[in-house]
Amino acid sequence: MAQRFPFIAAVKYSFPVLLGYPAIGIAAGLLVVDAGYPWWLALVMSLVMYAGAGQYIAVGLFAAGAGLVEAALVQLVVNARHIAYGLTMFKRFNAAGPYKWYLIFALTDETFALLSAFCEGTLSDDEDREHQSRFMFLVALLDHGYWTVGAVIGALLGTLIPFSMEGISFALSALFIVLMIEQILRVKRPGPFVISALAAILAVVFLPSRLSLLSAMVIALVAVQLLTADPVRGKGAGNG
Fold first, then answer.
1. What would the 3-class secondary structure string for the chain be?
2. Could you count the other beta carbons within 10 Å of the beta carbon of residue 109?
3. Cα(216)–Cα(60) distance, integer angstroms
4. Angle between the 15-34 and 171-187 helix axes, to the nearest 10 degrees?
5. The whole model's pTM is what?
6. By C-alpha distance, which of 181, 185, 223 is closest to 201?
């Protein structure tokens, strides 16, 4: 990581998200306006909610007149995967000092994909820890900015130009697929990804839609741990 120019390094590192977030942010902004809401709601949602797929779903819930409790439960199920994200990043974020709380707030799917692949190196030196924490913060902040700018542009365009919304909600899924492929190529361990995909397919086929997402996560996490763990660790220890 470039310590002298952390912002430039963060821009380069977050470049894959820069290529995707403005576009799907625009889609989210268009959905807000298409549902009959003012353009500034896209800005407010992006600043204080910033939940990617959750924002897409929230617009539909608002338009359908869903109650607060119902909307909260739906969002909890949809974003339950962030529990796993948070547990994975707990050690890094806990050492991030003043950046910790924003990093927790800004941990979207794509930001998690970037930060989980980021090599921390040694954390024994306080200065190194500060540089690494600032770098993670900048990556998260840039991703947030990419999304917010895109959402505002989309909402403003939606007030001026009529757009067809057909199929536009798939934009977020498409970006995550691209990032997943990049991660597979980077870590060169396709096993966990294949297991997760199979778990998702099985959950969708055999379980009710309201349970499929959370169930797929649990199945994938357990299966990955069981199938990728080092068998009989320490075999032979204690002999002699």
1. CCCCCHHHHHHHHCHHHHHHHHHHHHHHHHHHHHCCCCCHHHHHHHHHCCCCHHHHHHHHHHHCCCCHHHHHHHHHHHCCHHHHHHHHHHHHHHCCHHHHHHHHHCCCHHHHHHHHHCCCCCCCCHHHHHHHHHHHHHHHHHHHHHHHHHHHHHHHHHHHCCCCCCCHHHHHHHHHHHHHHHHHHHHCCCHHHHHHHHHHHHHHHHCCHHHHHHHHHHHHHHHHHHHHCCCCCCCCCCCC
2. 19
3. 24
4. 160
5. 0.69
6. 223
Q: What pLDDT digit, counting tens, does each position of 87-110 carry?
A: 888 888 888 888 999 999 999 988
Residue pair 51/79 in contact (Cβ under 8 Å)? The answer is yes
At a CB cut-off of 8 Å and minimum separation 6, what does 117 contact?
183, 186, 187
Q: CA-to-CA distance for 156 and 1, rounded, in angstroms? A: 37
Confidence of residue 218 (pLDDT cuts 50, 70, 90): confident
Q: Are 28 and 37 in contact (CB under 8 A)?
A: no
pLDDT of residue 141: 96
Look at the block and give the residue holding tokens 């290529």: 19
Tens of pLDDT, residues 151-190 = 999 999 988 887 666 666 566 566 667 667 766 776 677 7
